[in-house]
Specification:
Helix 2 packs antiparallel against helix 5. With 141 residues, the chain is of the alpha+beta class. The termini are far apart. The protein folds into two domains: 97 residues; 32 residues, no CATH class. The chain has a two-stranded antiparallel ribbon. A two-stranded antiparallel sheet has the order 3-6.
Length: 141
């Protein structure tokens, strides 16, 4: 399960980036990745905080990435279809509904809608790219 993103104007951007210094490239990548990372953490649904805490960023000269490392990240991002949930190590599932404790041999999960927190963060980062470029070039003047 992967995420494909098409960025128009990438050739022109790469051509422009090849003409500027490594410091400017580093700043551009770092600031862009920071925006995407902050937005991903902002948009991540919070129940326990585990998902949000496991969104990390890696920045190198000329490239960077934002990764959601929670094992269930893809299920939150893309949603799930209806499916059964069965016990793995026990004879029944145990869960609570209100004050009642329920035991069941299996549960039919209705599925979940995609939350698209990473995609939305990437879109925000790409929209902000022009502003970031202007800020960096203004600093150089």
């Amino acid at each position: 399960m992967g995420l494909e993103v098409e960025v128009r104007g990438l050739k022109e951007l790469k051509k422009t980036l090849s003409k500027i210094s490594e410091t400017v490239k580093k700043d551009l990548v770092e600031e862009s990745i920071n925006v995407i990372w902050e937005k991903a953490r902002e948009y991540a649904p919070v129940r326990t905080g585990f998902l949000k805490e496991h969104i990390v960023k890696e920045v190198e000269v000329g490239r960077g990435r934002v990764i959601s490392q929670a094992p269930y990240s893809a299920f939150v991002e893309y949603g799930t279809r209806p499916h059964g949930i069965f016990p793995r190590r026990a004879r029944a599932l145990r869960f609570e509904v209100g004050n009642d404790v329920i035991f069941a041999r299996y549960v039919r999960h209705p599925g979940s809608k995609p939350r698209s927190y990473m995609r939305r963060a990437l879109e925000d980062g790409l929209r902000r790219l022009g502003v970031i470029v202007n800020e960096i070039f203004n600093r150089l003047r």
